[in-house]
Sequence to fold (257 residues):
Amino acid sequence: AILTHTLSLQERTKAMTQQACLPANQCCCGCSLLLGAKTILCCNLVRCVFVIALAIDSVSHSEANLILQVEGTVAHKVTLAAWGIAGLALTLFGFWGVANRNEQSLRICWWYFTVSYAIDVGFGVYEYVDHAPCNDITDLVSSQGLAIACGAERLIWITITAMATTIEGYMLFVLWSCCEDMRLAGDALDQLYYKQQHEIMKKHLDPAEHIKCKPRLGEGDTLVGAAEGGGCYTIYGSHHDVQFPPNPRNAQGQLIW
Fold:
């Protein structure tokens, strides 16, 4: 196992030197990639549920009785819901991949995020170009303040588009980094270390851990069956006395811990 993990680490180092953009080793300055991936998948899950609910509300109610007052036609909302249903399934698939450290499952979800990112950036640019002439605020402000209001609206749309592009792009990068980490077994040595550390701590806390009689007599088992290999149990208590000087015993010969 150690040799396999070492080879994976060598493969990781070789692959990283050939990449133009190196994957991240943490998310948001301290969180693990797995935690970052789970958080991103949760956000996308909420987003998919919202667009599906938006379409259901639009189809079930008239425009005057909508519960979710969001601008858009019924066709537009239904199209978003179709994309959200696909995203819902792929997001749950991605959760399974993260839980089981399956790179292929998370990679498929990452491709969905990539297409969604391209669509979101395209719509963001379209909305900015559509609002750039400021035709939607001419009836709300006077001619004297139109220039300032138009400049403020353009600045707001530029900020929204830039922030959406940056934040969603970083989420995409974190998911890709998590995929690369799974593909090249980036934390395999850490997992091996923690497993060995756990075993060492168990022996340190209980020196008799490695000689305890683990199997127990079940219902219907007998001492004869146990002697023949059917199981075993400790006669006095649940520990073997390996201390020196020996621990005290009671009148029945049982150890007093």
The longest helix spans residues 146-183. The two ends are 39 Å apart (CA to CA). The chain has seven helices and no strands.
